[in-house]
């Protein structure tokens, strides 16, 4: 064969050193072995496979041809351990590997029990029909299985070097059925035969001859036992590594490994009993725990076991336990002590009562007494996997039957769920910091995340649902999905990810048949494992491992830390039941005012057998308690029914409540606290999903709202649809802010700023709608302008230089927010004050309307052009124009009210120049003239809150330049006369404007120490000092007070007291609106109804009975400061002005 040709073929097959591989191939003569370089492509490490073959050929020259010989070929190779027919034979029959007895079976040697076949008929796993490995019928597949094993596992290659005839076990086609029955292959009564001893002297007879024979053959029997175990693992590994989809057969692989282990335990226990004098005096059962119990073992797991024993006949308990302890100590030596064959695995008994400090063997009564008296949460979690493995089957079954009820009662223990979560955290903390991201089993996103998640769900819900009482992780996961305790999507994801990580763990362990918990970092091993996992390269495998861990961790955190779990665990069995009698008693005890009505809601929510109804039956026992923790559980449950019925069979809704972390609890809280939220959530059901995370409840920024509006406007055809888009955003954001406020996610300042911006976006959309209706392009509408034609008939000053002839000109319009809206301090029940200003100019003078809207280009006409100080009249000049500014303003207001699809936005324009008597929209020039000549003191004060919010930004800036001299007067500043006028006006409001029928001290807005007191105090300081203190030039009350304190105009403690009182007043007012669901005059008073007070208190996070007391105390302190500062009882000494 051409050396270059074979080298290239070897390289293509995955060899890293094809030149060396070519030399080895030549020495082996691959063609004689019926192998080609391409056959090695299946190997995780082709170089390793080839070297293993070369090693076998060197140490056992006859073995390798025998492995690959045609049917009826080379005979067996005998030896001391019976390879082919010795006393403790490990498989090969007397006729040799591949020989047959004419019936298609390998001829059996006298001591072939531990060989591949499982009986004295050597030759294969079970009954294997066919011929040698190289036969045409099954040879190719068998060669692939052999090479796949040699290419990954040095441990199994070593086993083949010791027992080359074991390769015949690979001839059998894989059988993935898993019975789960211990001892089915190695029956008790055949032990004597398997050991080459007379059947009449078996362990059951307890004969002296049996013990004598065993003493002479014990070492050989143990070697035979271990060799047989490894041969069966070889068969499983060969099938596993060549399976088309390893993740699909992973559960069967783990199940078969578990069955081999339990068979080995059974045989080993028989050996130990036969060696131990007096063994017949005790009944002993081995209970499989952990992965052994769940039939999901790895190739190299420790085997977790618990021992239970009982005396036979009249034997004392102490003697029986003493003998049993000797037996189990010997059993541990049989499977794990150094010997002729490698040790198999350690028997881990640390899951027994009292752990390593407790007795190795206990009676069943002692086990039960311990668990009932001293058992800890983690021990009951461990018992979830308990399964009989070996020994006395009746005693083992009794152990499982007696301990099972304790498992399903464990979740009612105090802090059970919290303990389980803490244990998972402790497990993570045991990992060295450098291994945190590499630990396949214990690390974040590792196997334990899936196992802990599944087990916690089982333990919490399993006491009421026997269907999820499964010991196997994947079987339990499927049962949890079918029972609706986890979504089918999440269950499928966890199943897929868990299988993948288990396959990875298997391949890591197969290399040496030792535990390998860490993901490989060495290049050669990483490449080997990547090929074994079907990945293109080591880096690709590493990236997939990171992605899998990230997905597992996300699912684990979402499910394992559900608030529903600790609440469900605390429920009694009667609480879980929704049976009418038990439910009525519980509802009454929880404080529902109308238990019968609540039962009606429950019946409606849980009726039927749909997946939604089944999830509701899980959720409601817990949610009833959550509703009851609120101030009005009846209203909360009623609102929940309305919402659920509106959602109908929508798949995501109930799933979100179950899987969405705090969603269900937060929904209960919100519905039980707020009539507003109870009314609005069903109108926008997707809001339920916001409850999953605090960031979803954070108000959207104005830039986010603007971008969203623009995207919505592009899909709207009519002006009304554009306006409704803005009003929808406002409604949605008010609901978001209401939820965040009621749940304590945001503070008052944040809420009020966000409420103001929600109204801003609605006004912006309405103005765009009016402009679009008038013929503006989308870009012009966004920029707050429209091209128009005008016949000039205006005062000289207003239009100088503005006539552009037949080309037309641009009308700019801007909405100026006033009052609390301008200060970004709107509450849920606040009025929205605004005025309209406009101006005409050349068509942007070449400016891009988009740039003008963004404020990136200076206004083309200065304020001086628009305003001349010698304007003769402030009366608006009538002009003939194709677009009337008054009409634009009127249509804007119309679009804020028209249509029933979205709530209207009422705008108060009474703060405009001349009030109700003046034009709705006013030109910039006329506005300047008015404020110069006619503005009263209260109008100058109102301008302190003026802020452009919609339309032309450049016009808005120009308007601010016009009004700044009046609201921030320069020296000599605000006159003493004007100060007195402001104070008198405030006194008049206190006397006249507080509605009758209520106590003035309880009026949150206008009462002493209320919102108006504090806002007027801040505004008076602004009027007096903002001309000299730039920090006071703000529309915000809180910022003004802070700036006044910083400038020394106001004492710092006074400023803090005023801010605290203002925030509390706003919070109380908003909380009352949320509780009542409506505004109106009554909403400005403190609540007096106990039920409403309870709601308000819950929203504010304090007892309802203390709400009014806390408010009045803060208001009294604030009023004292107002009287000193606002009413002039204390002179100001501003340090900043000294």
From TrEMBL:
Q: Where is the composition biased (Basic and acidic residues)?
A: 845-855
According to the entry, every stretch annotated as the PII-uridylyltransferase/Glutamine-synthetase adenylyltransferase domain falls at: 421-560, 1000-1126
First-tier enzyme category under EC = transferase
Residues of the Glutamate-ammonia ligase adenylyltransferase repeated domain: 145-398, 665-776, 808-850, 875-960
Give start-end positions of Low complexity composition bias. Answer: 856-874
Q: Which GO terms describe its biological process?
A: regulation of glutamine family amino acid metabolic process
Q: Which InterPro entries match?
A: GlnE, GlnE_rpt_dom, NT_sf, PII_UdlTrfase/GS_AdlTrfase
CDD domains associated with the record: NT_GlnE_GlnD_like
Q: Which domain of life is it from?
A: Bacteria
One Pfam family linked to the record: GlnE
User: Under the cellular component aspect of Gene Ontology, which terms does the record hold?
Assistant: cytosol
* Region annotation Disordered: where it falls in the sequence: 844-886
Keywords, ordered alphabetically = ATP-binding, Ligase, Magnesium, Multifunctional enzyme, Nucleotide-binding, Nucleotidyltransferase, Transferase
EC number(s) recorded for this UniProt protein: 2.7.7.42, 2.7.7.89
Claim: Translocase is one of the keywords in the record: no
Q: Which terms in the Gene Ontology molecular function aspect does this entry carry?
A: [glutamate-ammonia-ligase] adenylyltransferase activity; [glutamine synthetase]-adenylyl-L-tyrosine phosphorylase activity; ATP binding; ligase activity
The record's section on NCBIfam families has: PRK14109.1
What name does the UniProt record give this protein? Bifunctional [glutamine synthetase] adenylyltransferase/[glutamine synthetase]-adenylyl-L-tyrosine phosphorylase
